[in-house]
């Protein structure tokens, strides 16, 4: 790795050591999760029970009718001035980003690439965002490890913070708890791009990345996939803008993205799923499953025991949720 990119060699060990220190000090919340492996149309999906995520604080709501004149509190921004105990690398890619640990980790060594100055999560990504993420992916690859990066954008995507950030999950840590070391599970987007058997019930725009991809080529690929996803989403609830979309302003980042979507990035693959819903009910009393960008890894996170039991006992419930969160394959405008 080039020193100018701000990512030192041995990045996996650096992140892991920081994670262990932060967990020991109580700076982050992480507990081992129960896991089951389900299959949807032949595609292996992890189902992980992570009750600690139910304790994750939500953004403040606007003032109610009793005090309409009151100004809603400014939402807490965890990336504006990250706690020292969560900091991993303060300066990535010339200072555009910083690498911090996720305070509410869904797996060991769960980290986040956040912009050092506020950039909107709801706007399209810039070349520097993708360069920072891919630099980390290559740093893990140099150490013989895989890294899965995902990005949530829009009201249906599972996004919870307005400050732009991408989330990083070491694939080896995502396999923990699975039988036979996780040999029966692969990262979904890599599986699809390789043409392995099975098909997901939602549209995905995906592309294979060339070795030595540059920031410019990564951004070109991203915009191409975003356009495919936007086209596939036309006429569905994935479209969140009203009126005609100024695609030039949108793609330059001057206005919010017109669709809700998740992005996934690995060393070999980039993929985007346009989202029409964050989740769907899985129990008779309204218990639901919400999905974010980890769905493109083939992972579903469950926060409550009732939903965990319902999904684990009947994999068709997971298939029904997956069929409702995106654009049905019958509407897709391009093949993988």
Automatic annotation (TrEMBL):
Q: Which keywords annotate this record?
A: Nucleotidyltransferase, Transferase
Q: Which residues form the Ap4A phosphorylase 1/2 N-terminal domain?
A: 10-174
Gene transcribed to yield this protein? APA2
Do you know which InterPro entries this protein is assigned to? Answer: Ap4A_phos1/2, Ap4A_phos1/2-like, Ap4A_phos1/2_N, ATP_adenylylTrfase_C, HIT-like_sf
Q: What broad class of enzyme is this?
A: transferase
Which residue ranges does the record annotate as region Disordered?
Answer: 57-82
* EC numbers for this chain: 2.7.7.53
> Where does the ATP adenylyltransferase C-terminal domain start and stop, copy by copy?
199-328
Q: Does the keyword Transferase apply?
A: yes
- This one is known as Bifunctional AP-4-A phosphorylase/ADP sulfurylase
Q: Which domain of life is it from?
A: Eukaryota
Q: Which GO terms describe its molecular function?
A: ATP:ADP adenylyltransferase activity
Q: Does the keyword Transferase apply?
A: yes
Q: Where is the composition biased (Pro residues)?
A: 72-82
